[in-house]
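Protocol step 4 of 6: structure prediction from sequence.
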Amino acid sequence: MSDNPLVLSARPDSRSARHRAGPPRPARQRREPMPLVLTALIVAGALPVAFVWWQNTIPGSLDSPAADLTAAGRIAGLLAAYLLLVLVALMARVPLLENRIGSDTVARLHRALGEYTVALAFAHAALIVCGYAWQGRTDPLTETWAVVTGYTDVWLAAVALGLLGLIGVVSARAVRRRVAYESWYHVHLLAYAATALAFSHEFAVGTEFSASPRNRLLWSAAHVVVGAAVVVFRLALPLYRSLRHGVRVAAVVAEGPGVVSVHLTGRDLDRLGARAGQFLRWRFLARGQWWQSHPYSLSAAPTPDALRITVKALGDASGALARLRPGTRVWFEGPYGAFTARRATFTARGTFTARQTFTARWRRGTARPVLLLAAGAGVTPLRALYETLPARARGGPGHHDGGAHHDGGVLLVQRASRDEDLVLHAELRRIAQARGFGLLAVVGPRGGPSGDPLRADRLRAMVPGLAEHDVYLCGPAGWTAFVRAELRRAGVPARRIRTEAFAF
């Protein structure tokens, strides 16, 4: 036992370090270009928008500070309208984005673009008003009243701007921590209304569209395509799947203090294509819950007739799941997320064709060893991955012997403050014994006389060859950020640290 107050279910074996002695093999990383491609496409899409502004700017018209302010307001408004359309597209739950790029990446991009969108929208209003006030030699307040009351559909634009401002306030970190998830989620849905109102404003007073049938056609087509994606992927497809598969609650099982597993049954669930590590948005058609939709990960490998989620009571909605009755009908969206075995990387040993599967590469000993790090309810997607990651034959790169390490190339470290908080740990022990995987429980306070038990030096001691691992990390946001930073300090490249986020 170390001097830190920990309870360990397994310990690193010194033989592991001897086994891995010598320089590491050169790595051939499986690149993930899709996030960069998506970002590049969004940036490229802004160029035609800027060209529309330039095309409709009369040569020689930018001849005064008032004209410059008004022109800057026009381009800010066009870019804000474009980014608002992009935000709605990112909210549409398009499977290519959600499952190939990853919900976490899409969520980060959505948050970043949302800040720019709100800033550009307010800049558009302020610059236009100031430009007109300068030109008319009036004060900004008087000009604001004149613009709002004297121009067609500017009232609609004012409402849209107010909605965007409300979304921006609710999205601020200090506010988001204090707002219930349901309120935060439903406020964000106002982005659809803001987009519709902004569209009407653009066509009514925007010279870039009122004077050009071609621009009106292209802008309308872009809105139709994005609107169709929202209708198909957020309404029609979830409704079709929910009716077709007939998912119902089979049982609710207590797993620990405030933690329950909801067992679900349905028809032909294998046709969903759900993978371990993914999540779905669930809507339980019970009194007081039917109007709420919440994301929960699969906590067991999906089968043709059964799914399972495991949820910790963190609010009214998650706490109410313990009262669900067998037979309750369930509607759902998904599956979503790229927090799966498909994101693993491979060493340079051996050559493979594009047709060879992840399992084939793993069994031939070319997949990297995998470290799963879980805290609290974050163990649920990792438990499903732990069950389904293919075991590797002995002797491949990253092979460890005995102790906390493993013949299968997989180690799961579960963090908790108390023994009773080790969610699903008994199941994890059975899987570890059956598959030859490593399992390590780290129980105790985060601080203590020896510091945090998952700081970089302790992680390296627990996991020899840590820098050569693929790492899947899931837990509370603050804990995840801390451990990710410690992994980077321990030498794990950022491209091999996988996390997942549920928020859009």
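Step 5 (inspection) to follow. The chain has three domains: 14-30+344-498, 34-241, 246-336.
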